[in-house]
Amino acid sequence: MCVMSESLLGLSRLALAQRLESWGYKTVHAKPIWQHIHRDGRSDVAAIPGLPAGLAHRVQEELPVVWPTIALETRSSDGFTRKFLLTLADGRQVETVLMRYDGRVTACVSTQAGCAMGCIFCATGQMGFARHLSTAEIVGQVLAVSIGDHERTKHHAPSTEHQHPAQSTQHPARNVVLMGMGEPLHNYAAVMAATEVLADTAGFGLSPRRITLSTVGVVPGIRRLAAERRPISLAVSLHAATQAGRLALLPPAAKAWPLDELMDACCEYSAALDRHIFFEWTLIAGENDRPDDAHALGRLLSTQRAHVNLIPLNPTDGYAGAPTAPKAARVFQDVLTTYGIPSTVRQRRGIDIASGCGQLAARS
Ligand code: SAH
Ligand code: SF4
Q1: Same domain for 98 and 134
Q2: What was the pLDDT predicted at 163?
Q3: What is the mean pLDDT of each run of 10 residues along the chain (364 residues)?
């Protein structure tokens, strides 16, 4: 469904300029329109001073700024995580999360409604695939949760009991992680166009390095990122250090892209871009959190430029596993240290608001 493909949010600044020119207007008008939307977070194009008569009307008619609307906002009890359920133009709902740590604001956005990859512990995978999101829908999530707009607040749902009135102001995200619902490399073109729109310095102006794409291990997509020298950061979800282990946890993805091919693609990526890769490891008690698992991971990553993110499992309704206890997570880290591999244990904050991938949408 392409309801939003002609939203202004999905166009690059150059494409907007070309559109204005095709309508007989000067391309110079593209910049103020772009800034109004992407820098100031506003959708009322008619309020832009100095636009020729008729142009604002034409933009509103043919390239409306279609924001996703906020159907639900919940906050973790510590106030650091705000989770949004957003409704798209066709009524589908996706999740976007805004996290605040140490003064840094990070938006975690979705790239698909549902996911075709079927990882057994993931609420989005348990849902199945519905459709790809458009560039406008990916950009729209970041803007909708991160910069204010009086138009959009009309759609704002009433506060939930978790909300704290003093924390109701918007915070522009300076980091974006493509780690919400869906597999970004399964929706390559729309996702890459969204990263370019968000990085445009005349608009939202994100540093490309502060955009992190997380993939389950779509090998052709990783090779394409390398070939195209995409300046964004890359995270690869591993969860197991053997092909058999990955087949058990991520059956379709592991079958399609075996571990040895994935490791080759990662080496190629690091060499092409001269960078390290974040490797994601969801810690599941008794499944992949033993010292032996850490040794296997240490050996596997010995030829990679790696930083490991360890994320204790967020329990989901469709999977019986439990999260690893903090002490076992520390032992796992200590083993990785003996291989010279840096790691971080990431607590998925806001577990009390079901902030695991896809969990809010699954329950709605
Ligand atoms: N499809 C991409 C990005 C979205 S998932 C990917 O798989 O990388 C983002 C991260 O959340 C992945 O590392 C994924 O394995 C992890 N994840 C999914 N469900 C989880 C859960 N229930 N608990 C902890 N991490 C989970
Ligand atoms: Fe899809 Fe990522 Fe969830 Fe796997 S973990 S089902 S790839 S969203």
Answers
A1: yes
A2: 33
A3: 66 97 97 94 91 93 90 85 92 92 88 96 94 97 76 38 37 89 97 98 95 98 98 98 98 98 98 97 97 98 96 92 96 98 80 53 58
Domain membership of residue 358 (yes or no) is: no
Closest C-alpha residue for ligand 1 atom 12: 237
Residues with CB under 6 A from ligand 2: 115, 117-119, 122, 124-125, 182-183, 216, 357
Annotated catalytic residue 261 = no
Whether residues 234 and 202 fall in one domain: yes
pLDDT of the residue at 263: 98
Q: For the chain, give me the number of helices (H) and strands (E)?
A: 13, 12
Q: Is residue 158 part of a domain?
A: yes
CA count, 13 A, side-chain hemisphere, 197: 27
Q: Is residue 3 part of a domain?
A: no
The one-letter amino acid code at 45 reads V
Query: Is 153 found in the same domain as 75?
Result: yes
- Determine, yes or no, domain membership for 153: yes
Number of domains in the chain: 2
What kind and span of H or E run contains 309? strand 306-312
User: Inter-axis angle of helices 291-300 and 326-338, to 10 degrees?
Assistant: 40
